[in-house]
Write a structure and sequence with these properties.
424 residues, four-stranded antiparallel β-sheet, elongated
């Protein structure tokens, strides 16, 4: 009898493998998600934003502690006394004081809240760095895929024209084709070879750029093509979801909150913090001993009022910037959704045109082989079919890229924010 634990482990392993296979099928043309997460985490901008979180955490501790430290004052003096009826007297005297500013009620809570707002803003900034780096990776990845597809398409065209050139040369040797036809096929082949060479250069440049920007990301071309599915959900659903997860809007919102807290704190500073101290001293060479306490309160002036008014105005400015960021993100999300939906229609039209032009090119080639057509028509048909196939392939990749960009902005593509426990 099999061990139940072994059976459960096997079932769990099969379930895990099935989920990975399903995820790969649902996200074609993308590199593995675990590798993407590793590459994005290692990006210098993401690393910098992670370090900034630690800096803001230290700043929060500084604000919570405050600049309210004990201060020691020591002094000495020499007293000289000249009584009218006696000799001059000299006395060594000293004094010491221990004092500390006192933070008025409410200011400590504001300082702690201001520090926490800074940490939250830094965490949102890290999420934004991950998101923007993910955008860059997606763009560079699909640029490489598109250039690879173009290079493959032109290689196929070169192979097809090379066969046609050999067939034309053979027909010329048999006296069944004019020398002009051989020249035409050679010229068409040379043009295709030039296009293929340029496509390979663009592919290599895209690959180099991708590897240098995102080292550690393997370049693996998809083994099969996939049809892009339709975008599920309407415009408002996608825009609302993107607004909910937008780091740009989150940063603007965090700046507003931080500025509002700073305005409240600056308003409290209209009332200066007092300084309380204890002092002791000796006079007349130790004959007199003095112990006392004192309190020092600065008199507020126009500078404090101006600082408070400036902080309120700054809070209002950040609030307006937040509204502007919301409008910007909303407009960009709507445009992206519409582009993704339109890209699917464009690809379907390009695919239909490519299929028809390919059939027309095949029929023209058969007619030429049977002596019922001319070479010029066949070469033109092949060129049009090649252009249509390339346009359809690029439109297909463009459709997937826009779809994934929409999913990335809505946080449906790569779950990266959860990697930092402090991120909200």
């Amino acid at each position: 009898m099999k061990n139940p634990t072994t059976t459960l482990c096997a079932i769990a392993l099969l379930g895990s493998l099935s989920s990975h296979v399903l995820a790969a099928e649902q996200m074609p043309y993308l590199p593995p998600a675990d590798l993407v997460a590793k590459v994005l985490r290692a990006n210098p901008m993401v690393q910098a934003s992670t370090s900034q979180i630690r800096a803001e955490e230290a700043n929060r501790s500084r604000l919570e502690a405050g600049n309210y430290e004990w201060n020691i004052r020591l002094g000495g003096q020499q007293r000289r006394s000249n009584p009218p009826l006696s000799q001059e007297e000299r006395f060594g005297e000293w004094n010491a004081a221990l004092e500390r500013p006192l933070r008025l009620p409410g200011k400590a809570a504001d300082d702690a809240e201001l520090g926490s707002a800074g940490v939250a803003l830094a965490e949102t900034s890290r999420g934004d760095a991950l998101h923007e780096t993910g955008r860059g990776l997606l763009k560079s990845w699909f640029l490489w895929l598109k250039e690879s597809a173009a290079a493959a398409q032109w290689d196929a065209q070169v192979s097809l024209l090379a066969k046609q050139t050999k067939a034309t040369q053979r027909r010329q040797q048999l006296g069944d084709a004019a020398r002009l036809e051989a020249i035409q096929t050679d010229a068409a082949l040379a043009q295709a070879e030039a296009q293929a060479a340029q496509a390979r250069v663009r592919k290599d440049n895209a690959a180099t750029d991708l590897q240098r920007r995102f080292p550690g990301l393997p370049l693996s071309e998809p083994g099969h093509t996939a049809e892009p599915p339709a975008i599920a959900g309407d415009l408002n659903e996608w825009v609302d979801e993107i607004l909910t997860h937008s780091h740009e809007l989150g940063m603007a919102r965090g700046e507003t909150r931080k500025a509002q807290i700073a305005a409240t704190r600056s308003d409290r500073d209209r009332m200066p913090d007092p300084t309380f101290g204890l002092h002791m001293s000796t006079e007349r060479g130790g004959e007199d001993h003095i112990v006392g306490a004192y309190i020092s309160i600065p008199l507020p002036g126009g500078g404090r009022r101006a600082a408070a008014d400036g902080a309120v105005a700054q809070a209002a400015a950040t609030s307006h910037r937040e509204a502007a960021a919301r409008q910007k993100v909303s407009a960009e999300a709507a445009a992206l959704y519409q582009s993704a939906v339109a890209a699917l229609v464009t690809w379907q039209a390009n695919r239909s045109a490519a299929e028809r032009l390919t059939r027309a090119a095949d029929m023209t080639a058969r007619a030429y082989t049977l002596g019922e057509g001319n070479l010029s028509d066949m070469l033109t048909a092949r060129r049009l079919a090649n252009e249509a196939q390339l346009a359809a392939r690029l439109a297909q990749l463009e459709t997937f890229e826009l779809r994934y960009r929409l999913m990335l902005d809505a946080h449906r593509l790569w779950a990266l924010d959860e990697e930092h426990p402090g991120h909200n």
